[in-house]
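Hi there,

I know you've been waiting on this one. I reran it after we fixed the sequence typo, so this is the corrected version. Both the input and the resulting structure follow.
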Amino acid sequence: MGDRSFGYSAQVRPFLWVFLVLTPVEILLIDLLVPWFWLRAVLLVFGLISGLLLGWLLWMLHKFKHEIDDEYLWLRYAREFEYRIPLRAIENVTQGMTSRSLNKTRSVVDGTLVLEIANTTNVRVSLNEPQEIDLGRRGAHQVTKIEFWADDPDGMVRALRK
C-alpha cells in the first residue's frame, strides 16, 4: 500500500519484550510456588495467553506502520485504528515534542487529532481543510491538525514535505 513506512513503537517495544521474556519465568515460579494443580493449570493457561497476546502486539506494531503513498498519509496503531489523510489536505508539517498525557492512543483535543505513544507526540501536521475522524464510541470529529509519534520524525517530515 505505502511507498514509505515509518515505525512508531520504539518507545514501547522494549517494555513489551521485557514482559514477553519474563512470562516464562513467571509461569515457572507459579509452578514451583502454587501447591494446587488446578490453580497451576489455570495460571499456566493465563500465562500462555498473556505471552501470545504480547507476541501478537509486537508483531502488529511491526507490521502496521505509518505509511505515505502517492495520495495518502496512513496513520495507524497496530490493528486498533487506521486513519487516511489525503496529502493534498496537508498544509504544513513540523517536528516538535509534545506531551499531553491523555492516556489514550487517540483523542481529539480542540480540533487536533492526537495519536500519542507513551504520552508524547513529535510530528505536527496542519491541514488546509477539515478531515472527519471517527473515534468509535467517542464519535466522529472534525480536525484541522494532527499530532502523532514517529520513530524517525525527521524522515517523516521530509517525506511529507515532498
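Quick highlight: The CA atoms of residues 72 and 86 lie 4 Å apart.

Best,
R. S.
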